[in-house]
Amino acid sequence: MTAVAAVAHAGTAPEISPKSRSLPSWPVAGILLLYPLWWALGLGVLIFPMMAAPMVYLLLRRRSAGRPVRLPPGFVWWVIFLAAVVISIAALGVDPPGTVPERAGERLVAVVYKLSMYASLTVLLVYAGNLTDAELSRRRLVRLLGGMFVLTVLGGLLGMVAGNFEFTSPVEWLLPSGVRNKGFVRSLVHPYAAQIMDLVGGEKPRPAAPWGYTNTWGNNFCLLAPWLVVAAWASHRTGRRALAVLCLAVSVVPAVASLNRGLWIGVGLLLVYVAVRHVMAGRLWILALLPLLGAALTVALTATPLGTTVQARLDNGKSNGVRSFLVDKALDGFTGSPVIGYGGTRNTLGGRNSIAVGESAGCERCGNFTVGGNGQLWQLLYAHGAAGTVGYLGFFGYGLWRFRRDRTPIGIAGSAALVSSFSAMLWYNSLVTPLAFMVLAYALLWRNWIEGNTD
């Protein structure tokens, strides 16, 4: 009997460890919770491809353990986009009219960087969407995203009061001087609080920390603000709700100081969209809240110097001409390669008034503007043509349609983030952190739908 039992035991398949079936939360939570550390170390957005590697391993381990890996609804659109990004590399050696001639190899580094980031965020989307509430609850992920908004506000305040604050990160120290002094590399590994610009008369700091650029700071502000509201909504502690309200009130100050008109438009769009969704769900109390918010904002703008700052920015549209020039260049380039684009951005010959007006030691911001650098939509059209644009817009547009009946706070906040991204793509580029927050919003909508929790 003992021998028979031994033979039977030997022929039995080994048990699968529960650990190999589960997905740990630390890859996603670690990115968000420790982002100030990554920024200070000089890793910043580089943390996304670094964390993508263990995410892929963990997903493959779970699949080999017999638990399938789900793909998000509408994923075929995203595959079309990624395919277009890869195929468009074939046009990397083309020099469209009016752009600085370069060899394909000179443009390859930036293209590989962007491709790696798109791939990393694809992994983040799939991983976050496959997590269960037992592994990383939706409520905790919402709190983490709300915390990122608090981080954004704190970074904005730092940029206001210490605009010249910067330091050499450990990663930067490790790089050879010839590498770390390159503008592109420096933007990745060198932490600083603000961008100093002359937009309203005299150089002024525009908040950027910890996102690297003022425009990225403004984009993330709009993408993350709804999550703080949802996190406060879900909390039963009066103190936490009061702190959330205080944070939102304080956030007006760096939002105005950023001189970021795209941010102001985005916040207005968010409020309108959220109000419409609540009215459609029968929550008419929102109609009483909006006038109160409007009155509070009006008082803040008239009783403080913030109103003067807003008016000064509206009266000084120095970037309007450059933006129009670059939009025209992007559309002209699109007609030259409408299907797959040119694989990446290009620099213009000179400025908008003359090809002789170019970047120089005395005027680093003169001419040689980046075509496709003034908005995700224009970059998609120019770099990846109609194929990439349709794939990208199709994925997020499908998500909005697929989850349109989700009337939960997560559903409204997630769709609001996607709606604000469609507005932002006219003047902001999405790589890297804005797109990361977009795919996490998509993952939350997806998980809500899986759980059947949409009312």
From TrEMBL:
Superkingdom assignment: Bacteria
Transmembrane segment boundaries: 37-60, 72-91, 111-129, 141-165, 217-234, 241-257, 263-280, 287-306, 381-401, 434-450
InterPro entries: WaaL-like
Keywords for the protein's UniProt record, in alphabetical order: Membrane, Transmembrane, Transmembrane helix
Protein name: O-Antigen ligase
Lineage: Bacteria, Bacillati, Actinomycetota, Actinomycetes, Micromonosporales
